[in-house]
Amino acid sequence: MFNIVLFEPEIPSNTGAIGRTCVVTGARLHLIEPLGFSVDDKKLKRAGLAYWESLDVTTYHNWQDFLQRNGLADREGDISAEGARRLHLLTKKARKTYVQAQYREGDFLVFGKESAGLPERLLADLPDSCERIPMLPDDQTLTNREEWSERADALGGGSSVLRHDALMRRDICGNFVDPDDYRISALNLANSAGIVLYEALRQIGFPGMDAG
Asked: Which residues cross the membrane (predicted)?
């Protein structure tokens, strides 16, 4: 059984759809607060359909609470060596792709919030656990790149969703991809979780994966 971890998810329909995927694959869902919605949100239940009632889901106060309750921290409260091996942090900033990772049953696939992804402090703590989903560059996918840029300027005074200064720098571990290669193009959270989960399932021989 795998574990899908959503760090401060914001959009209920994404979480609902991921919950549905968890049910049909036997995965557990972990939600780290603060959430951008209530677990009773109608949009969440609508996306999850009746599957939500069968979902194994746990909510945590914060990242540290998640680590402690799942045996991923050492006595000092830091991530243990075994915990680090079981965590897969999905981020645009990783050099390694998700198909280059090795998955074991019980591993935790961690996804960040829709608006900002995972905090840099987590990525810096676990550089070897960071993985990305390859995507085409913006100039091959978006015909309205200028419109996206104008929206960013309007929302953040010229510094927001396209040009977070933090995203344009490498962390102390040198873990991030070329900072000039930051992309607008992105999959939504539910798509990303499904892609990575099914690769993990393929590696452990999930029933039907070898059908040709």
From this structure: none
